[in-house]
Amino acid sequence: MSRATIATIHLGALRRNLARVRELARGAKVMAVIKADGYGHGLERVARALVGADAYGVASLGDGLRLRAAGIITRIVVLSGPDAAADLAEFRRLRLDAVIHDESQLRWLEADHDARTLRVWLKIDTGMHRLGISQDEVPSTLARLRALANLDNADVVLMTHFAASDEFDNALTRRQIECFDDATAGIIGTRSLANSAGVLGWPAARGDWVRVGGLLYGLSVIDGKSGVDLGFEPAMTLSTKLVSVKTVRKGETIGYAASWQCPEDMPVGVAAIGYGDGYPRGVPSGTPVLVNGVRAAIVGRVSMDLIAIDLREAPGAAVGDRVVLWGKGLPVEQVAALAGTISYDLTCGMTKRVLFVEDDN
Ligand SMILES: Cc1ncc(COP(=O)(O)O)c(C=O)c1O
């Protein structure tokens, strides 16, 4: 059986979202964060669409390798840096920037005598307590980096990452900005603090480089707001087809665990998508979908390959009609909230059997 489940990637939306990020960045350089396979939209595809970005941010050396193999020549920053001393030669060969966040990486650099230079970003932990050196370690670490002949010392970019910038009046974010300013006071060099929410809500953190992921895909992390509410367009529409339409009698139940009961004789559609495609299993009855553009609701449990839909609002719907799960016309944030997660988690979660197609708009 050919699966009808399609993730349509809107390349024009990616381009327009980048242009909007540029406006908001007010002259700061834009790193397009395309880790996790471009937040599930496809690494090489997204890189090609966002060709105007000043750099790409990826999670690992492997992503950098894929991008260079695809002919991408733009600057690439590996956000967690080298995982082993042996990675350094690959960073140089592929001309990848390395984020240095840990003493172990510093030691690998110091032990490395390759004559080719490497570009480095220094990550400072200002309160997220994930990756980064502490504020106190900044002067000594910079001195050690600057003593290395095999680094491009002209510009070690100073960076940090926010834990809660999605709340625009958050005390931790204020403290993180203060900590970063203190840690880097008097140091000449380029600075990078803001992610998507930082760009939207923390102008003091704009710095020289913004590192933006979610907004480029039209995704929001601001509670209660969709990417569209923020002026961005969805870059992914997930859709499938109805494979069955029938009338189910009042009092009968739908699907596994018989969790939903028909209140009347009613049309029920079954669509070819389930958790085997990456659609979240945990969404409740009532979760919205669009059937031929009309809003309808999932009823019963999501199963591996199929969902059932209450078609009372779309009575003319027939087998073969298109069902949109999220994207244009139905913000992914609405589904994510019902699934108890964020939009990023859903777009990153598409499985191999979903067919990806590109739409130039
Ligand atoms: C270090 C770093 N910078 C920037 C980003 C982009 O974040 P967002 O997608 O919220 O813009 C990420 C993503 O998690 C990140 O890890």
What does this protein structure show overall?
This protein has helices at residues 11-25, 35-39, 43-49, 61-69, 87-94, 103-110, 138-146, 171-184, 196-201, 332-339, 343-348, and strands at residues 6-10, 29-33, 55-58, 75-78, 96-100, 120-123, 157-159, 191-192, 209-212, 236-248, 253-254, 260-261, 266-271, 288-291, 294-299, 307-310, 322-326, 355-359. The protein is of the alpha/beta class. It starts with 5 loop residues before the first strand and ends with a strand. Bound molecules: pyridoxal-5'-phosphate. The site of pyridoxal-5'-phosphate has 10 residues, from strand 9.
Q: Which key phrases capture this entry?
A:
alpha/beta, eight-stranded parallel beta sheet, single chain, binds pyridoxal-5'-phosphate, 26% helix, 361 residues, six-stranded antiparallel beta barrel
How do the strands and helices of this protein lay out in sequence?
Elements: E1 6-10, H1 11-25, E2 29-33, H2 35-39, H3 43-49, E3 55-58, H4 61-69, E4 75-78, H5 87-94, E5 96-100, H6 103-110, E6 120-123, H7 138-146, E7 157-159, H8 171-184, E8 191-192, H9 196-201, E9 209-212, E10 236-248, E11 253-254, E12 260-261, E13 266-271, E14 288-291, E15 294-299, E16 307-310, E17 322-326, H10 332-339, H11 343-348, E18 355-359
Parallel strand pairs: 1-18, 2-3, 2-9, 3-4, 4-5, 5-6, 6-7, 7-8
Antiparallel strand pairs: 1-10, 10-13, 10-17, 11-12, 13-16, 14-15, 14-17, 15-16
Helix pairs in contact: 4-5
Bound molecules: pyridoxal-5'-phosphate (PLP).
